[in-house]
């Protein structure tokens, strides 16, 4: 069947496409109009990580022939000082660091910043531009522009060695190391700063596409973000190959058939996805994290906001192993471990919802009844050191799985999805704290072994999660909660100590839902099309397609979902996640 999955979902903010200017020429034309209103103007151009400085500077030089340009890097501490300052958060580990509490001011050298300010004050030029992260902190300014970029685009640029970490010159490093420093340091620092200056920004520039910048006013962006909280919406998904990746997503999502595979699909990881705001036929891409940073109470609901702050606590993603391989055998840290070792306030509790599965599909989950901890760890270490096989079946329980099974994976449970299945992963947001125990003796896509973390893993494995307990508590622990005309509601997870609850609805007719004051994340797991509607006409009908994940902001309140289009009258299924009260 032809794919109907929408890879570029956008939300209409206004019919006026003139609100979104495209290309440097029209952007600088607009800025010129603002600048010419004053006899002398100081403009701060703040940048997020990843922005191509050469592209921006070339455009500025061409279009503002006589301006003075000051880089905030001139006010930054030396590279050596910054490396020393960030080291406790970056550490020597290849994957894991420690969440920083640093702020952009910590990167500035106050003497150098004073010096730069004096230079600007004494400059007679009528147009002075201060460029780079922290620009608005150097001097009082007349105009504030923010050039933004989504984290997925930053990661693409890191893989091409085009992006440095904040305040240092290290773009030639391996992409995984650049990512680690960004995850634990740069993105935290830049997001704190962006939140602080957001309301003062006159314009935002979307620089995700090289040489195709777009600009909207700060008011238009604020209006767009507020609009999102009034209705269901989707973030822009992205997909990435991996060593165990499969072939299912290519067909269902309609991805490049010539790609080796797709392993991951991220369609609700607001930290890394972006949002497309439509102004007439123009779209403006903004990092989804901006919505979370600016509009958390309406998006998440007050109680969830109180618990998590401006963080989106629920993650939906795809793990495709159809005709691929097994994920690494792995375990995730408990709350205490993740807090103490990595500075995270909550942990990676997970679940696998099977969107599809071949007859031979399976999951490794929990330990065998006769597991001997010392022996298993010794076998893992020996396999790691010698390259000999690790006999996973001897220690870990293997369960057959089928379409629509829901497997719960509280942190500490040894697990991995096997080949030939399509998982919709529904979990808490932390997502890089995977302790690999065994990677089946294979190399990664870069032909190097992927890092193994037995020394972390052995400290968090829950050894009493053995076959009997696992089967009772974690495998299809499904209970019918309510029934109505043409619908059934079931509770399917997550495990009782985890903060996410999931509800599955099977329906041939309209189902009534309510956010009950907390954000809902939903995926259409059965049926080709459904429509989300407001009983009071608060938002226009929102059509969703098979396998699409969508977000219902807490502020939406009541809504309904029913089969739509070619699915009308047919059985559909949704799985909904929310934060338990
Ligand atoms: O280590 P692997 O084999 O790449 O698997 C990683 C994946 O495993 C998971 O932790 C799922 O269990 C995902 O969150 C993560 O992306």
TrEMBL record:
InterPro entries: Carb_Metab_Reg_Kinase/Isom (IPR051804), RmlC-like_jellyroll (IPR014710), RmlC_Cupin_sf (IPR011051)
Superkingdom, natural source: Bacteria
Ion transport found in the keyword field: no
Keyword check for Ribonucleoprotein: no
Molecular-function GO term, any one: isomerase activity
Keywords: Isomerase, Metal-binding, Zinc
Record SUPFAM superfamilies: RmlC-like cupins
UniProt protein name: Class I mannose-6-phosphate isomerase
Species annotation: Christiangramia antarctica
Lineage: Bacteria, Pseudomonadati, Bacteroidota, Flavobacteriia, Flavobacteriales
